[in-house]
Amino acid sequence: MSIRTERVSRMIQREVADLLQNDFHEASHSMLTITGARVTKDLGIAYVNVSVLGDTPEQRNVAFKRLEGLTVQIRQALAQRIRHQVRRIPEIRFFLDDSAQQAARIEELFEQIHSEAGDEETGADDPASEHEAA
Asked: Which range has the worst mean pLDDT, 21-35, 56-70, 86-100?
């Protein structure tokens, strides 16, 4: 990635995050976090990764679909902010970043394995359990 595309990517990530926090917060009804952005070499398309916090996958999907419905308005607001820094405002494509949910699930599995291993260890060290087994 060239220096120019990296700079534009960071700028888009920052500006879209600010727009979602300040201008489109009421419309999204959810906690949205921009986790990354990248643009094509010709700066024509910006791929924006979004993490959505919610209790269930259905809530996260509904919030993401709502965000996708606001893409045109977000691009127009972005154009007002960055029109003096780029010649052409890139088309925005949002992608759901579920790495936070995957990390939480992995952590949950590790805790489950750890607690099961702890149960097995305490059962093997207990002298009363050895007498019951005999």
From this structure: 21-35
Please give the CATH architecture assigned to the domain spanning 3-97.
Answer: 2-Layer Sandwich (3.30)
| Residue-level pLDDT at 15 | 96
For 111-127, write each residue's pLDDT tens digit.
Answer: 888 888 877 766 555 55
> Where are the chain's structural domains?
3-97, 99-134
Least confident piece of the model among 8-12, 13-17, 73-77, 106-110: 106-110
pTM of the model: 0.73
- The 3-class SS string of the chain reads CCHHHHHHHHHHHHHHHHHHHHCCHHHHCCEEEEEEEEECCCCCEEEEEEEEECCCHHHHHHHHHHHHHCHHHHHHHHHHHHCCCCCCCCEEEEEECCHHHHHHHHHHHHHHHHHHHHHHHHHHHCHHHHHHHC
Q: Calculate the alpha carbon distances from 53 to 8, 21, 35, 131 in Å.
A: 26, 14, 12, 50
Cross-strand pairs, 39:
46
